[in-house]
Amino acid sequence: MVPSAELFETLWEWQDTSAGNLLITDEETALVSALMNGSDGGDEIKETAIWGAGDRNSLVVVLRAIFSWRLDEEQAA
Can you give the pTM of this predicted structure? Predict the structure, then answer.
Protein backbone atom coordinates (compact mmCIF):
# COMPACT_ATOMS: atom_id res chain seq x y z
CA MET A 1 0.00 0.00 0.00
CA VAL A 2 1.20 3.49 -0.80
CA PRO A 3 1.13 5.71 2.34
CA SER A 4 0.04 8.86 0.51
CA ALA A 5 -2.59 7.12 -1.69
CA GLU A 6 -6.19 8.13 -1.25
CA LEU A 7 -8.93 5.61 -2.01
CA PHE A 8 -12.44 6.75 -2.89
CA GLU A 9 -15.71 5.22 -4.05
CA THR A 10 -16.96 5.86 -7.55
CA LEU A 11 -20.40 6.92 -8.74
CA TRP A 12 -20.91 3.57 -10.51
CA GLU A 13 -21.78 0.14 -9.18
CA TRP A 14 -18.94 -2.16 -10.26
CA GLN A 15 -19.74 -5.40 -8.40
CA ASP A 16 -21.67 -6.93 -11.34
CA THR A 17 -18.81 -6.35 -13.79
CA SER A 18 -15.47 -7.97 -14.41
CA ALA A 19 -13.70 -4.81 -13.24
CA GLY A 20 -10.61 -5.48 -11.15
CA ASN A 21 -8.42 -2.62 -9.95
CA LEU A 22 -7.83 0.89 -11.19
CA LEU A 23 -4.78 2.98 -10.40
CA ILE A 24 -4.21 6.51 -11.62
CA THR A 25 -0.73 7.48 -10.44
CA ASP A 26 -0.80 10.98 -11.80
CA GLU A 27 -3.11 12.53 -14.33
CA GLU A 28 -1.18 10.98 -17.21
CA THR A 29 -0.58 7.36 -16.17
CA ALA A 30 -3.22 4.69 -15.50
CA LEU A 31 -3.42 0.94 -14.86
CA VAL A 32 -6.67 -1.02 -15.18
CA SER A 33 -7.27 -4.69 -14.50
CA ALA A 34 -10.09 -7.08 -15.34
CA LEU A 35 -11.08 -10.29 -13.57
CA MET A 36 -11.74 -13.42 -15.63
CA ASN A 37 -12.70 -17.00 -14.94
CA GLY A 38 -9.87 -19.44 -15.44
CA SER A 39 -9.58 -21.10 -18.84
CA ASP A 40 -10.05 -24.56 -17.32
CA GLY A 41 -13.66 -23.79 -16.35
CA GLY A 42 -12.90 -23.99 -12.62
CA ASP A 43 -13.54 -21.45 -9.90
CA GLU A 44 -10.13 -19.86 -10.30
CA ILE A 45 -10.26 -16.13 -11.01
CA LYS A 46 -7.42 -14.63 -13.02
CA GLU A 47 -6.56 -10.98 -13.27
CA THR A 48 -5.01 -9.27 -16.27
CA ALA A 49 -4.16 -5.59 -16.71
CA ILE A 50 -3.30 -2.92 -19.22
CA TRP A 51 -1.66 0.43 -18.67
CA GLY A 52 -1.39 3.66 -20.56
CA ALA A 53 0.70 6.79 -20.25
CA GLY A 54 0.51 10.26 -21.72
CA ASP A 55 -2.18 12.92 -21.75
CA ARG A 56 -3.31 11.79 -25.24
CA ASN A 57 -3.36 8.04 -24.51
CA SER A 58 -6.90 6.66 -25.11
CA LEU A 59 -7.04 4.75 -21.82
CA VAL A 60 -5.90 7.77 -19.82
CA VAL A 61 -8.30 10.11 -21.65
CA VAL A 62 -11.32 7.86 -21.00
CA LEU A 63 -10.48 7.31 -17.33
CA ARG A 64 -9.89 11.01 -16.77
CA ALA A 65 -13.30 11.71 -18.31
CA ILE A 66 -14.98 9.14 -16.03
CA PHE A 67 -13.24 10.36 -12.88
CA SER A 68 -12.85 14.05 -13.71
CA TRP A 69 -15.35 15.03 -10.99
CA ARG A 70 -13.04 13.60 -8.34
CA LEU A 71 -9.81 14.86 -9.89
CA ASP A 72 -11.28 18.38 -10.20
CA GLU A 73 -12.43 18.21 -6.57
CA GLU A 74 -8.91 17.29 -5.40
CA GLN A 75 -7.29 20.09 -7.41
CA ALA A 76 -9.67 22.66 -5.93
CA ALA A 77 -8.78 21.63 -2.36
Answer: 0.60
Is 1 part of a structural domain of the chain?
Answer: no
- For residue 37, tell me if it sits in a domain: yes
Could you read off the pLDDT of 18-27 as tens digits, one per residue? 778 788 888 7
| Pair 50, 32: CB distance under 8 Å | yes
Q: How far apart are CA 22 and CA 2, in angstroms?
A: 14
Strands, E assignment, the chain: 19-26, 29-37, 45-53
Q: Is residue 1 scored above 60 in pLDDT?
A: no
Largest CA distance in the chain: 49
The number of folded domains in the chain is 1
